[in-house]
Amino acid sequence: MAQFSFAFPKPGTKKLLVGATLGAALAIPALLAGLLVFLVPMVNKPLLDAFIREKLGHVPATWVGTQWVYAAALFLAGIAMFTFAAITGGIFSWYERRVAARIQSRIGPNRVGVAGFLQWIADAVKLLFKEDLVPGEADAMLFRAAPYFVVAGMTLVLVALPAGQAIVVADLDVGIFYILAVTSFIVVGILLSGWSSNSKWSLFGAIRATAQVVSYEVPAGLAILVPVLMAGTLSTQGLIRAQGGWPWEWFFFRNPAAAVAFFILFISQLAEGNRTPFDLAEAESELVAGYFSEYSGFRFALYFLVEWANLWIIGAVATTLFLGGWQIPGVSAQTWASVRGAGSFPAFGWWALQFVSLGIFAVKTLFLVNVVIWIRWTLPRIRIDQMMNLCWKYLVPAGFAAMLFTLVWQMVATWAPIVEKITALVVFAATVWVTWRFLQQTRKNVSLIAHERVDLSNW
Amino acid sequence: MSKLVLRRLDRNNEEMLINFGPQHPSTHGVLNFLVETDGEVMRRAIPDIGYLHRSLEKIGEMVQYPGYMPYTDRIDYLAAMFANEGYAIAVERLLKIEVPKRAQYLRAISCELNRITSHLVSIGTMATDIGAVTPLVYALRERELLNDLLEALCGARLTYNYHRIGGVAFDMPEGWRDKVLAYLDRLDSSIQEWDRLISTNEIYRKRLGGVAVISRAQAIDYGLSGPNLRGSGVDWDLRRDVPYGAYPDFSFEVPVGCGWAGVVGDCYDRYYVRVLEMAQSSRIIRQALEKMPDGELTAKVSRKPKPEAGEVQSRIESARGELAYYLVSDGTERPYRLRARTGSFMAMGIIEDISPGLMVADLVALIASLDVVAPETDR
Asked: How many Å lie between the alpha carbon of B303 and the closest alpha carbon of chain A?
């Protein structure tokens, strides 16, 4: 009888493979962190000026090369952000499939590398080698252009999105407003792709997506107004600086309306990112694949890149606005200033602290990313009229109420700051209690399934 | 067919005509629906069947009586036991054969196990069609375990070819009885898990409750049967009302839709009736395993039966409703005419009249809730 061996990897190659995968798994996030921490502060003008003055020996104001150095720094920072988006998107695609598999009592991709970690690279390479097909009846130019609008909408957001104390490409005065604005690029791309595909299903998906994203920008904007009112600034870094490191200093806990606004924003972001239960635009069981039905190869990969890189954006925006961003507990603005030192270039401790702040930001963001994935693989999809009802009948009025409440709350908080402190502790305690109850219920549900044991050995 | 359908559509209106199938993720096989939509709201959905037509009835006239048994598997590949049993009963009535008691019990057990696998697929794909992918995998996991048991019984996981004219092909393997009982214990807790997982989900109830309501009168008029009929509140089950085989020996309840999530006869009722039926099937199998008599597996049947000229009809309660065979014999080794009446075909008929005013997403729910399977509509 023929011997079929499905054992992979083969015993001999296993050590090498494990090593390679672990190397990649550790090196890629480390590379990302390094890129972010060292490249992004470079676009800081005073730092660049100091670099030209002290390392290159020119006077920045008069030297001809100054603009070139600025341009090079911006270019490098842009590359860093785009690489960051591409790699996080890729890793999330693997991670989501693994988590989904666990939720569905499957194993998930486990062939390429240890625990299938290199699956996303294999998928990307496969898609790059596929034929880039344009349907005969399609509007070829718009069809080819559409994915770039979507990618632009996603990457432009990263410009104003902070990831650490000094890790932001541009700390715009209108940061959060800018993010809301450039997100609309995605709608343009979706509408273009749906229209130009010349397929009824694509058009259906595109119309749905447009209606959905445009509608949900209203509650999202209202929810964003709540922390903006509390901080008094639109700058993303300013919003984080107005919060503190400890949970009870976060906006989420400092104002009951902010907790409501957080959930409004989170739901709206799910809808804007076309995630279940709002994945109507790409509803597989209804619209085949929605607006990207006709795409293949590289352009198809771009849509998926955006979908998964959006996960980071969903988490990061919510973290920035409500969950204290990169603030390290116990480290105040004075500490940052003193660690930095008086020199032109920051001291070593400052760089180390940047890493810590990046880590804290990443942990909060990844927690939200997990929640998004978990929701996706748990809930069914809602219908389009229910989605519109939810938006206009519930979220928009609730957003208005939260905003008005915040206006009054800010007056109360200025008049008696102790009220804010007490509320923060009460809301924090309530959150802890709810989490505890939730975990208890989960344990109970797990124990009810007597025949199913949680088995993590077959990873 | 398509010309006919297109003529029926009003060419002067502004609606978009979409071909919902035959390659579409949620049409459960190669079915096509010509959907006329005004944005999200459907004006009409016209079923266009025939993509899976394999002339099974004609084949029945060309092969000898015992040789048709494997073909019946293909009438409904998700619930092949019923198609087997219906055909076997029809030929037995033609030959006037009495089936041994043990064979009847084995038939009941195999059919009820098959009903569970079929309903697991039905409710799993229903959840997927509504957008929750996870429950499908849970349902398929339970189904795989059950397929193992069916494989142990008859050697196949999908097209069983287990029933024979006059009885069944094989006896229970050794130790099978205990495995089935252990599985049924597991199934009973799985059904509760299923309720926690998806049946009580608010979005799920909102998506299915009050959607595509088929009234009691409509259900009867259109000839719906099985879970679709019971979902509309009609208390009718052939196993109880026109008993056949070993069913008179068992006590079981017939779940009837009562508007769990809205109106009687909505998609949720048709869905939940199936969930409850799995528990009843489990109950029937337990009784059958307990009371299992000894005896022959098949009655004495000639290898080339030549029934007298005449016509018979057999009706059984399949997982998709009433499965009826109508056999005409002209006294030769082959049937003169063979006709299979299937539940899915009847269910397809009602879609065109229920669909106006539904949303596109509701059409998916309607198809899934009627549990339409392409081979059964086309044969």
From this structure: 36
The DSSP line for B139-169 is: HHHHHHHHHHHHHHHHS-SS----EETTEES
Question: How far B75 CA sits from the closest chain A CA (Å)?
Answer: 25
Strand order from edge to edge, sheet including B310-318: B310-318, B321-329, B335-341
Residue with tokens 């057990």: B109
Show the tokens assigned to B197. Answer: 């997982």
Neighbouring CB atoms inside 10 A of B200's CB total 11
DSSP string, A185-249: HHHHHHHHHHHHTT-HHHHHHHHHHHHHHHHHHHHHHHHHHHHHHHHT---HHHHHHTS-SSGGG
Minimum-distance CB partner of A384 among B129, B132, B359: B359
Closest CA to A203 of A129, A121, A142, A159: A142
- The residue behind tokens 């990897």 is A9
From residue B61, give the alpha-carbon distance in Å to each of A242, B162, B200.
83, 21, 48
What is the rounded distance in angstroms from the CA atom of residue B201 to the CA atom of residue B208? 11
Check CB contact under 8 Å for B132 and A204. Answer: no
CB distance B341 to B323 below 8 Å: yes
φ, ψ for residue A228, nearest 5 deg: -65, -40
Give tens-digit pLDDT for B172-192.
888 888 889 988 988 888 888
Residues in A closer than 8 angstroms to B192, CB to CB, are 448
Instruction: Give the global pTM.
Output: 0.85
- Say if residue A135 is preceded by a cis peptide, omega within 30 of 0: no
Distance (Å) from the C-alpha of residue B319 to the closest C-alpha of chain A? 23
Measure the CA–CA gap between A235 and A177, rounded to whole angstroms.
8
A214-264 pLDDT, tens digit each: 899 899 999 999 999 888 888 888 888 888 888 888 888 888 888 899 999
Question: Nearest-CA neighbor of A226 among A170, A189, A265, A183?
Answer: A265
Mean pLDDT of B310-329: 90
Residues of chain A contacting residue B182, judged by C-beta atoms under 8 Å apart: none
Tell me the pLDDT tens digit for each residue of A261-283: 999 999 998 988 888 788 877 76
- The verdict on a CB contact (< 8 Å) between A381 and B206 is no
Query: How far apart are alpha carbons A443 and A454 in whole angstroms?
Result: 12
Contact B69, B84 (CB under 8 A): yes
- The residue extents of the domains of chain A are 13-129, 131-415, 417-454
Contact B370, B347 (CB under 8 A): yes
A288 with B24: Cβ contact below 8 A: yes
Specify the amino acid at residue A108. G
